Amino acid sequence: MADIKESTVEVHPVSFPTDILARISPDLSLQRHLSLGFRPSSRGFEEFRDVIINTGDLTHNTQSDDSAVKTPSNDGKQVLGSCVLKQGDVFVITQITGGIIEDITLSTNDMEMEEDTELLEITEEHSDITKYSSVYPVVEINRGRMGACTDEEMTTSQRLYDSLLHSHILTQNALRVEPGVRITNEDDSVNIIYPDSEKNKEITSLLKPKKKWSYVLYAKIEVFGRTGPVYDMCWNSLMAALQSVKLPRTFIDERATDLKMTVRARGRNAVVMETYNLLCDPNESTNLQLRENCISYASSYGAINLDPEADIANLEETDDVDAPMDEELETKTVLLADIDGEAEETCIKSTISITACPNGRFKQFSVVGGGAKITKELLMRSITLSKQRSSDISLKVQKV
Amino acid sequence: MNVQDRRRILGPIEARPLAFPEVKSNSKEETAVVLSEFQAPSIQTTLLKNCNGSCIIENDKTSILSSIYGPRSTRSNLFEARCLINVTIKSTIFPTSELKELGSFLINVLESFVCLELYPKAGIDVFVNLNIEKVCDLSWYIPYIMMSIVLGLVDAGIEISDLPGCGFNDNNAICFTKNGSEVIGIWRDKGDIENESSFGDSLDACKEQYLQIKGLMANYLLSKLDNDKTK
């Protein structure tokens, strides 16, 4: 500055409106805000955005009954569960659809019967995770562009898939299909028998097909009006949507249960088993069984070093350039909850992401160093906050 | 691994979608009568922060969200004296081909009332998301879609020459402008047109609905203006 003053060129200070400064120099804008004690969004440091959660709206089976097993019809709708989550200005719409897959892989119980113990040992370490299942998420972030999915969409989808699998929320058993049998009576009336009662069990076990099926769940997660990182919103929305999932009961026609066809091909006779067509009952559905104590909600945090030079109070006091600055005393790291907005997203490189159950168990914990000094206190504080946040969201989901 | 799309986690290829047995439709005529009635939807604009304009139209059967991006520079190197409009419609219920066709139909409709000359070398991208229950053919939704796009354009501050709208009657979705004196688009999903007079009746019914929609839109915009003023 001193050099410029000596030359003839006069420099006039240029001032910008806040929103323009935030775009030109997000770093400075953020630091100035923080020095005043709040964030660009005028939230406090540890203040989360408000969350509004609505589940089951898009599934149209809202006339839910409290008796868990038999819920009213879902009218043949393909969407099994849904959630609309609004956090700040961001909307996340999650729709869960389903499919059915024939189980070809042997479950661990089936494997025990086989003598190949070596194989068992190898699979043992993996078997823990094979008991659990995940949904196949496709995240779409609407930002007015067409074409292939972006890196962010891909990584978010992958992270959701992995986190769900490893958080042990969804078991393979919960997705197992127990097909009923559709029986045509003598008087041409049709009824479907499910293996619920003992009596029905006998009938269905007689007619039961030998194959096994599982449900496959897909999640389509659409993000509207993205203003910041979206992972925790997607996760929370997925959690809420999963809790609203109603799996339709399936049945198989009695005639198809042991249908075999002899096919003559190139002079040889071969028996082809009919591929079963499982049909879904539009009138009967069951709630998806989740492991309640594993249901968790995500929250994210950022850590940023406060820049002493951007401190406005400091600036006014120490107009004198030569004033001594005690660097070590001045640098202070603060924890910001629920990162949002362009400035915070671009400037905060150190992030903490925690997925916690309301009861205090943790499902995921990740810290990205990124330059800021993450201290023990910061980590502990973020853990406390994540627990509070998680129980807060779980209350909101339960209310729905 | 899925060979078709490695970018997305689409799940095992062998999985089949859930199949429901065909439900016997309970008296089609009855549903048709219910549908022809226009239900005044709830309207909300300026919903999304990362686009220029947005509007959501909702009633108990539909939720149509339009987001308008633009006018923004296009990537093409050619000089275009007029603005290019692009409409993309997303829905899980209707087949993509049908949605694309509707998209190009809507582009034609939009070109007749958006002041394209004011935005040279620019593009306006319209994205419409349908979160709907399938109650009827695509044509039934067109009045709502039109309404959502028009209000989205107003929200984005894009100049349009009129508040156009669309009416639905007897499988016809007819778009009007200039208080019903001009037809700017006709969409028909199925069925033959019996004769001129039946089409004329249908046109009149659509026009009536258009006027009703126009009233709704004008009311909404005026009340919004008042709200903004008081703020």
Automatic annotation (TrEMBL), chain A:
Q: Report keywords, A-Z.
A: Cytoplasm, Exosome, Nucleus, RNA-binding, rRNA processing
A Pfam family recorded for this sequence: RNase_PH
One GO MF term: mRNA 3'-UTR AU-rich region binding
Compartmental location: Cytoplasm; Nucleus, Nucleolus
Origin superkingdom: Eukaryota
Family under the similarity heading: Belongs to the RNase PH family.
PANTHER family linked: EXOSOME COMPLEX COMPONENT RRP43 (PTHR11097:SF9), EXOSOME COMPLEX EXONUCLEASE RIBOSOMAL RNA PROCESSING PROTEIN (PTHR11097)
Q: What is this protein called?
A: Ribosomal RNA-processing protein 43
Organism for this UniProt entry: Maudiozyma barnettii
Q: What is the lineage of its organism?
A: Eukaryota, Fungi, Dikarya, Ascomycota, Saccharomycotina
From TrEMBL, chain B:
Q: Which GO terms describe its biological process?
A: exonucleolytic trimming to generate mature 3'-end of 5.8S rRNA from tricistronic rRNA transcript (SSU-rRNA, 5.8S rRNA, LSU-rRNA); nuclear mRNA surveillance; poly(A)-dependent snoRNA 3'-end processing; rRNA catabolic process; TRAMP-dependent tRNA surveillance pathway; U4 snRNA 3'-end processing
Ordered alphabetically, the record's keywords are: Cytoplasm, Exosome, Nucleus, RNA-binding, rRNA processing
Q: Where in the cell is it found?
A: Cytoplasm; Nucleus
Q: Which organism is it from?
A: Maudiozyma barnettii
Ranges of residues in domain Exoribonuclease phosphorolytic: 38-159
- A molecular function (GO) term: RNA binding
Give me the Gene Ontology terms describing cellular component: cytoplasmic exosome (RNase complex); nuclear exosome (RNase complex); nucleolus
Keyword match Ribosomal protein: no
User: Record's Pfam families?
Assistant: RNase_PH
* Name under which the protein is recorded: Similar to Saccharomyces cerevisiae YGR158C MTR3 Exosome non-catalytic core component
